[in-house]
Design brief:
This protein is an alpha+beta fold. The protein is built from 5 helices and 3 strands; from the N terminus they run αβαββααα. It is elongated and about 70 Å long.
């Protein structure tokens, strides 16, 4: 019986260590401007367990460092979707998308072109 308890304790200890407290992940998030960047990063960082969230305007990649013991990538993605930004293969609801500022309507090709042209003028 003692051996069984020891084996169970070892297994529990090993599974607890399997969760990384500094997990790193990258997810693609749509956006077009610095307002989008602030909104995306804020939504991610407000997720309990997220330590770092940096969105790159050029690559559309959100780089994350998070504690897997406190959150999962799905939860972070859900919070980003809730503020109106599409992620890899998942679209934000129309209601969430419509809540973003008019200049942030990344699904609109005219808005995308405006932001691309602004970048060329700088």
């Amino acid at each position: 019986m003692k051996r069984l308890i020891i084996v169970l304790l070892l297994l529990v200890g090993i599974s607890a260590q399997a969760q990384n407290k500094n997990a790193k992940a990258n997810i693609e998030v749509d956006g077009v401007c610095m307002m989008c960047k602030q909104r995306i990063e804020k939504a991610a960082i407000r997720t309990k367990g997220v330590k770092s969230a940096v969105w790159n305007l050029d690559t559309h990649m959100l780089s994350l460092i998070f504690d897997e013991r406190k959150t999962a990538l799905d939860s972070i993605q859900a919070n980003v979707l809730a503020v109106g930004h599409d992620t890899e293969g998942v679209m934000a609801t129309e209601e969430a998308y419509n809540s973003v500022h008019d200049c942030c309507k990344y699904r609109d090709e005219d808005i995308q072109d405006e932001h691309k042209n602004e970048g060329k003028q700088e």
